[in-house]
Design a protein that fits this description.
Radius of gyration of chain B: 20 Å
Radius of gyration of chain A: 24 Å
Distance between the termini of chain B: 33 Å
CATH topology of the largest domain in chain B: D-Maltodextrin-Binding Protein, domain 2
Number of helices of chain A: 27
CATH architecture of the largest domain in chain B: 3-Layer(aba) Sandwich
Strand content of chain A: under 5%
Structural class of chain B: alpha/beta
Helix content of chain B: 40-55%
Number of domains of chain B: 2
CATH superfamily of the largest domain in chain B: Bordetella uptake gene, domain 1
Shape of chain B: globular
Oligomer: heterodimer
CATH class of the largest domain in chain B: Alpha Beta
Order of helices and strands of chain A: HHHHHHHHHHEEHHHHHHHHHHHHHHHHH
Number of strands of chain A: 2
Number of helices of chain B: 13
Strand order of the largest sheet of chain B: 2-1-3-12-4-13
Chain lengths: 656, 350
């Protein structure tokens, strides 16, 4: 084994593989930082070239891209609350509030130190696991998967903070959203309404963008300030680095969580960071999570890089790719003569060792690259709102379209933006909805498989019992701790709502519960196997909704609990809110009417000028937006643009 | 077997000869082609599509860039085919799909907006028929109804190979039970190794060979490749029994046999590529020529032999269209029979 390790190091550090690795790291960092675009697209672009390489250069290039795909995606998550990819969604919860407090540099310092440590831990675990790879992967069957997913769903309770009922309602809505699409076990096209748009399900990218990015930009636009509330960014980068070493045990634990999520094929990137975040909230003392606690950045960032090492385990052991990006990489590996499966542990062991080396080297390089960029990026948090808001909205709409290149995705994105806006307005925690969208369909799948195969005997299996114990502990411990401290989860009482907001919230609850009930009515025509989850979601949702409404009514009756409202301030905020919504709707309509190229140049120009920005700023940003469309969409992604409505009406040609 | 290979060679030659003169009319210079891949990235359909596209581009007049767009698996396959049906007939949109989009039961879905008989087929690659394999300790249980049934994993009811165990259970007395809902071949492989399930089928030679090498499974039966006088086994697995030979002994009615072939025959087309309806003949010819030439490219042959197996068969676009017409021309009684049988064994009807 050590001979193979030494040989692999020699081969992978030769000039050509090293150069390819660096190019992969650089490309991955750029693509990861572009929200909604992501590293998967880079892999598909590189693929035709990569299949022509020799094995070691191919490993260097492909894993150089893949190993660090969750490093630079932290930039948009922290700065503008836009998830760079599925693997950086949890970072937003505390990362963006840190940027708002002027601690963007600290967040970056912490993220880009935790990431490589997590990645290296992932590589070390992979190396240590080599002799027992197969038993590790085979120790998790459908029942174990199901309770693991349940453990992840139990995070909903934690992520709900001081609004547990609303958090659970949000999670139920998330489970409903996750059920949209074809149900494999019955063939029923759930909630597709006879069309083909929803038959493949709802895109997680659209949910993440809508729930987080747009509400924050609306808030910024209403406040008319920069992201950071303070002008002084300090020397936070080194503080962030020190934070990681101060909380090294958290880094190790979350990295191990990431590795385990990676080992289990199918759970994926979007789960690792939420599991780790929830674990941090449940186990760390004196937490201020959700309000800019650096541990809320450290936890997901260490786990999402560690996951890459874990994902290689089933890939190497059985040729079962642990992620979509690995599935694409397998095309390259097989083409260049690397055979996944048993050979990777015998005569192809040097290739396996080369993969481990790339995980280590790439993570270190990427961290230095990201840390070097941290300062300049952090200064973006000082930019005025009229530069940040149009940039972010342009990115969001582009990312929504880039997801599947379907115009309906922009409408779906707007729907989730509205949902995210009202959730933020009425103090509904948003992370539980996202976690439930990710995990809901998986829970349903593995519960079905477990019952179909084992009846109810699966509950008695040792692995299941062990993980169930973990679930119970993680649910009970925070409650016990809260009880001892006499506090709510975040250590503060729930923020009081004005009378108007409470009434509005009652309306919103009615809408959510109404949606669940309508879903139930529609689902009642299906076989029980397909509709059972909807019955559960709707039934529980109605009960929870009633409870929350009763709590609101009780509070409304008590005039003393309602804080006074500033009518003048409210009118101004309402007007600005309507304005920004009109801008967003106008942006979406405009891309349909005149196309992306004209819209993405005009939108920032008009927005900046109408909010007091200079012509110079307006023209520069318009130019950059146009470059973005042309550079990324036209040249790199080679997007096929639909002919905009006006062009079709006038019979004019558009870009092919 | 020899007749089958002769047919294969004839198909390629005929394709090349009929196509060459017309190809000179098409020109893709400065153009981009959208390749809709009706599957998730990294799966078998995606791999075939991407690799073919990479080489085909060199044989198209003007060497256009071919850009891949995945529409996902499951419902995404239908979306991909719907997209092709709506595309302009300018030769700039093609689709890589597989047999599941051609199944008569799938075509009965409300979300289907395409008619596969109207598509213009460019060609197809058959990777060799599916092999049903089973954990060694479960094989004796397959023919013994006094024991626990052998558990067969399934993604959904739309996979062609399901016809083998279903007809086996219905007509050959197989003692089997189905559990659908697995995510893909990877999940089913893991479940099989763990003993959670006992069997499934695939034509993926890597999965099959690894399981055999590790002593986990026995190869039970295979779909076979149609020849002029029956079916022939895959070159890589000549000794695995042919299911069509087994089922002949059961003396099926015409409807029962048509129902079986309606499920299996789409898999004989396997990974096919097509253009939308109404595409001008010169463009169709150009694509078919490029497809055939790419398939013969030594570089692609080398990659394909590593990615898949040596059992690959090229099917010309013209022949694919004939096969699609045969598959789609199945009487409704046969389609309803296969839907009923799927329901009986707990699989999704469509």
């Amino acid at each position: 084994m050590f001979d193979a390790l030494a040989l692999a190091f020699t081969e992978i550090t030769k000039p050509w593989p090293l150069a390819l690795m660096l190019m992969g790291i650089l490309g991955s960092s750029i693509f990861a930082a572009l929200p909604g675009i992501g590293v998967l697209l880079l892999i598909t672009i590189i693929l035709p070239y990569a299949v022509t390489l020799d094995p070691y250069p191919a490993i260097a290039l492909m894993l150089g891209i893949g190993a660090v795909s969750n490093t630079a995606n932290t930039f948009p998550s922290v700065l503008i609350s836009v998830p760079g990819s599925a693997g950086s969604q949890a970072t937003i919860v505390d990362g963006f509030p840190m940027a708002q407090k002027g601690e963007a540099k600290r967040a970056f310092g912490a993220a880009f130190t935790a990431s490589p440590i997590g990645g290296i831990i992932g590589a070390v675990v992979l190396l240590a696991s080599l002799p027992i790879l197969k038993p590790i992967v085979l120790s998790f069957g459908s029942p174990e998967f199901m309770v693991l997913v349940l453990w992840g769903l139990s995070a909903v309770g934690v992520l709900s903070g001081n609004a547990p009922i609303k958090g659970l309602l949000a999670a139920l809505l998330g489970v409903l959203i996750s059920s949209v699409g074809m149900d494999d076990k019955t063939g029923i096209e759930r909630f597709a309404f006879g069309g083909d748009y929803l038959v493949g399900g709802v895109s997680l990218v659209l949910v993440g963008l809508g729930l987080f990015a747009v509400p924050e930009m609306i808030a910024l636009s209403v406040r008319r300030s920069s992201i950071s509330d303070t002008k002084d960014l300090g020397h936070g980068t080194m503080q962030g680095v020190r934070d990681v070493f101060k909380h090294c045990w958290l880094v190790v634990r979350c990295s191990v969580i990431g590795v385990w999520v990676g080992i289990l094929p199918g759970l994926g990137s979007s789960v690792a960071d939420w599991f780790a975040y929830a674990h941090a909230v449940q186990t760390e003392k004196n937490g201020n999570f959700g309000k800019g606690d650096v541990r809320g950045v450290i936890a997901p960032e260490s786990s999402n890089n560690a996951k890459e090492g874990g994902a290689l385990i089933p890939t190497i052991a059985f040729g079962i790719p642990g992620s979509t990006s690995l599935a694409l990489m397998l095309i390259v590996f097989i083409s260049v003569g690397i055979t996944p499966g048993g050979a990777m542990l015998t005569d192809q062991l040097p290739y396996t060792m080369a993969m481990i080396w790339v995980l280590v080297i790439a993570n270190i390089f990427a961290a230095f690259l990201a840390l070097a960029a941290a300062g300049p990026f952090a200064r973006l948090s000082l930019m005025p709102f009229y530069l940040i808001v149009p940039t972010t909205l342009v990115l969001c709409v582009s990312s929504a379209y880039a997801s599947h290149l379907i115009w309906y995705d922009i409408i779906t994105f707007l729907v989730f933006s509205a949902l995210g806006y009202f959730m933020k307005l009425f103090d509904w925690p948003r992370p539980p909805l996202l976690v439930a969208v990710v995990l809901g369909s998986q829970f349903e799948r593995y519960l079905w498989l477990s019952n179909a195969r084992y009846g109810w005997e699966w509950i008695t299996q040792p692995g299941v019992l062990a993980i169930l114990l973990l679930v119970v502990l993680t649910l009970i411990m925070p409650i016990i701790r809260r009880y001892r401290q006499g506090k709510t989860m975040s250590g503060e009482a729930p923020p009081p709502q004005t009378r108007a907001l409470r009434i509005g919230d009652i309306g919103f609850i009615a809408l959510v519960v109404g949606t669940l009930v309508l879903a139930l009515v529609h689902a009642s025509e299906w076989v029980l196997r397909a509709s059972m989850v909807i019955y559960f979601v709707a039934g529980t949702g109605v009960l929870l909704g009633l409870v929350q409404v009763l709590l609101h009514l009780r509070a409304l009756r008590s005039a003393a609990t309602a804080p006074p409202s500033d009518a003048a301030k409210t009118r101004v905020e309402a007007a600005r809110t309507i304005q920004i919504w009109l801008w967003l709707l106008g942006l979406a309509a405009s891309v349909n009417i005149v196309g992306f190229h004209i819209t993405l140049a005009l939108f920032p120009l008009l927005y900046i000028k109408m909010h007091g920005g200079s012509w110079r700023a307006a023209l520069v940003l318009a130019g950059l937006s146009e470059l973005f469309v042309i550079g990324v969409f036209d040249q790199l992604l080679l997007v096929f643009w639909p002919t905009p409505w006006l062009f079709e009406l006038l019979g004019l040609p558009y870009f092919a | 077997m020899q007749k089958f290979h002769a047919l294969n060679a004839f198909a390629i030659t005929a394709a090349a000869l009929t196509i060459v003169p017309a190809a000179q009319a098409a020109d893709f210079s400065g153009k981009q082609v959208q390749l809709i891949v009706a599957s998730n990235p990294g799966g078998g359909t995606d791999r075939v599509g991407r690799l073919m596209a990479q080489y085909m581009s060199n044989y198209l007049p003007g060497k256009p860039k071919i850009v891949v767009k995945n529409t996902g698996s499951g419902g995404g396959k239908i979306r991909g085919a719907n997209l092709l049906a709506k595309a302009k007939a300018d030769g700039l949109t093609i689709m890589q799909s597989d047999g599941s989009t051609l199944q008569p039961t799938t075509l009965k879905r409300k979300s289907v907006r395409y008619d596969p008989t109207k598509f213009r087929a460019i060609g197809a690659i058959n990777r060799g028929g599916s092999i049903l394999f089973m954990r060694k300790e479960a094989v004796p249980r397959l023919m013994d109804k006094s024991k626990k049934p052998a558990i067969i994993a399934a993604i959904s009811g739309s996979r062609s190979w399901q016809a083998m165990p279903m007809w086996g259970a219905e007509f050959l007395g197989w003692n089997a039970k189905w559990i659908p809902g697995y995510k893909g071949s990877g999940s089913m492989t893991k479940a099989l190794r763990q003993g959670e399930v006992d069997a499934f089928a695939t034509n993926n030679v890597y999965i099959i060979d690894e399981l055999v090498k590790d002593g986990v499974v026995d190869l039970v039966v295979q779909v076979g490749q149609p020849t002029d006088d029956g079916y022939a086994p895959r070159d890589s697995y000549p000794k695995v029994p042919l299911f069509p030979d087994m089922i002949k002994k059961a003396k099926l009615t015409k409807t029962q046999w048509q129902a079986y072939t309606s499920l299996v025959n789409p898999s004989l087309i396997d990974k096919w590529m097509g253009l939308t309806q109404g595409t001008p003949e010169d463009l169709v010819a150009a694509w078919r020529s490029a497809y055939a030439a790419a398939y013969k490219d030594p570089g692609l042959k080398k990659v394909f032999s590593k990615e898949f197996s040596k059992d690959l068969t090229f099917i010309s676009g013209k022949r694919v269209e004939q096969m699609i017409a045969e598959v789609s021309g199945v009487p409704d009684a046969a389609v309803q029979y296969s839907i009923a049988l799927k329901k009986k064994y707990g699989l999704s009807a469509r």
